[in-house]
Amino acid sequence: xxxxxxxxxxxxxxxxxxxxxxxxxxxxxxxxxxxxxxxxxxxxxxxxxxxxxxxxxxxxxxxxxxxxxxxxx
Length: 73
What we know:
Blueprint: H1 9-22, H2 43-52, H3 61-65
């Protein structure tokens, strides 16, 4: 995961979408599973960001990244 100086929710969501697209995490996994992609110094800032936007660590990653849009349906 890219090291972001200051996390903003849209950048964080983009990073998580990239992890989902690569298959590193699943949409149905809990948000707290993302902790393995951050070091111990970064994770508290991520937790603060998630709390600021009312995301629960026990919530699903799909709640964080939102619905996907398929162009060829």
